[in-house]
Design brief:
Layout: E1 37-41, H1 46-49, H2 53-61, E2 65-71, H3 75-80, E3 84-88, H4 93-102, H5 108-139, E4 143-147, H6 152-160, E5 164-167, H7 174-181, H8 183-192, H9 199-205, E6 208-211, H10 215-218, E7 230-232, E8 255-259, H11 273-280, E9 287-291, E10 308-311, H12 316-320, E11 325-328, H13 332-340, E12 345-347, H14 353-364, E13 368-370, H15 378-390, H16 392-406, H17 415-420
Helix pairs in contact: 4-5, 5-6, 5-8, 11-15
């Protein structure tokens, strides 16, 4: 079912009152833009929070009041981004552990469905709902901005009668596939929020959708977008940063950036991918830079090959400015970061279907290579890196996607549209 079309942009504000000869308004009433309160809601994941940030910052720069609702454990990321944090409960570990323990025993598709249905659809959302309802009742936002996987704010917004907007964290086919998997948990969540049966589904379908994906990438696989209501914008790249890297390997070799995102290192079944990637790339004539995330101690990986260096974290944009190729897991932030920098990539999807989708779009756009999903494909992915380095057509295609991204309007142009959704 296609979503409702977005309302047209809010009309321009009235002209300020005429001034007399002394330059003073002839009336005491002066026009001021309406200031709205916007609550952005996200799960505790950098790849999910990242796509919301450009719109949150644009709203704040335009004078609107913006706060971020996120798990209590995600407070450092929210405050570092410069926003007031409205915490909600983290998913109970006693509920998460049994789900995550099952993943290594399941085929990729079953494991992915389990995470979407049980973790995002039930455990995360049901834990977050009470706090989000209290936050909305206390702070009274005029608008909710939520990312694809954050569902509690959808229920809380509907219960409070607050308009809401969906920031897509993937390609255009991700939301409907995600929605199919969470159909039952979504209705359960609606019942917990006191909503009528079917209300959550209709609310999700009618949302305005903001996207950072250009059409040339979204439609690369031959599928067209669902409806005409995807509003596309470009996240401006940060100013160039001279990221000094330590010396290792052969200084004449190209730099290959390896990252599996900020979550993989905290998932026990997937922790071994770091060591395997380094070993598989040990004979490649490239300087391999691996980032493992702040929850992993690089010392625990063991002795490094001559061509490898490991850090917990480095600014991705700064590293990609120097990289000739990237090996990643297909996470949205990682994938789009490489494309925005015009860097070709090999994608090895590890644990969610959207990583598979992102890899398929990278391949269809000619900007890289993807392999079969799962940790067993780490060596296959590493074996493709020399092809990226030797064939310039991959980098050329990645630069074409980067140019299409830069041609999209900036997030500032979303601000009047969002303000227009407020009654």
């Amino acid at each position: 079912m296609p979503r409702n079309r977005v309302r047209p942009p809010v009309p321009p504000p009235p002209s300020p009152p005429a001034k007399g000869r002394a330059g003073v308004a002839e009336t005491d009433r002066r026009w001021e833009p309406v200031r709205v309160r916007v609550l952005c809601a996200t799960t505790g994941n950098d790849g999910h929070f990242g796509p919301i940030l450009p719109f949150a910052r644009a709203l704040a720069r335009a004078g609107h009041e913006v706060r971020v609702a996120a798990p209590a454990s995600y407070a450092p990321a929210v405050t570092k981004a410069g926003f007031t944090h409205e915490p909600f409960a983290d998913a109970p570990r006693e509920l998460i552990r049994p789900v995550m323990a099952r993943l290594p025993t399941l085929p990729f598709k079953e494991a992915d469905s389990l995470v979407i249905t049980e973790v995002f659809g039930r455990i995360d959302a049901q834990a977050a709902l009470p706090s989000l309802e209290r936050t909305i009742g206390r702070w009274r936002p005029d608008l909710i901005l939520r990312e694809t996987a954050e569902l509690a704010s959808l229920a809380a917004a509907e219960g409070a009668g607050v308009p809401h907007v969906h920031v897509c964290i993937g390609m255009h086919e991700v939301p409907p596939r995600f929605a199919e998997a969470i159909a039952d948990p979504l209705e359960e969540l609606g019942r917990l929020a006191g909503l009528d049966e079917g209300r959550m589904t209709s609310a999700r379908v009618s949302e305005t959708v903001l996207s950072l994906v250009p059409e040339v990438l979204d439609n690369a696989t031959g599928m067209t977008t669902e409806g005409d209501d995807f509003l596309r914008f470009h996240e401006p790249r940060p100013a160039s940063v001279d990221q000094r890297l330590p010396a290792w390997g052969d200084a004449e070799w190209p730099l290959v950036y390896v990252t599996f995102g900020s979550v993989t290192g905290s998932l026990g079944p997937f922790a071994g991918v770091f060591r395997r990637a380094l070993d598989a790339l040990a004979d490649v004539e490239a300087r391999v830079l691996l980032t493992v995330g702040r929850k992993v101690d690089p010392a625990g990986i063991g002795p490094l090959p001559f061509n490898a260096h490991v850090e917990q974290w480095l600014p991705q944009d700064a590293v990609l400015e120097q990289a000739a190729a990237m090996l990643g897991h297909g996470g949205f932030g990682t994938t789009m970061g490489a494309l925005a920098a015009g860097v070709p990539q090999v994608v090895v999807p590890l644990f969610t279907f959207d990583q598979v989708v992102n890899g398929d779009h990278v391949v269809a756009a000619g900007a890289g290579i993807t392999v079969e999903p799962g940790t067993s494909s780490i060596e296959l992915a590493a074996a493709e890196v020399p092809r990226l380095l030797s064939d310039p057509t991959y980098a050329e295609s990645a630069r074409r996607v980067a140019a299409a991204m830069e041609a999209l309007p900036p997030p500032a142009e979303a601000v009047p549209i969002l303000a227009g959704l407020v009654g």
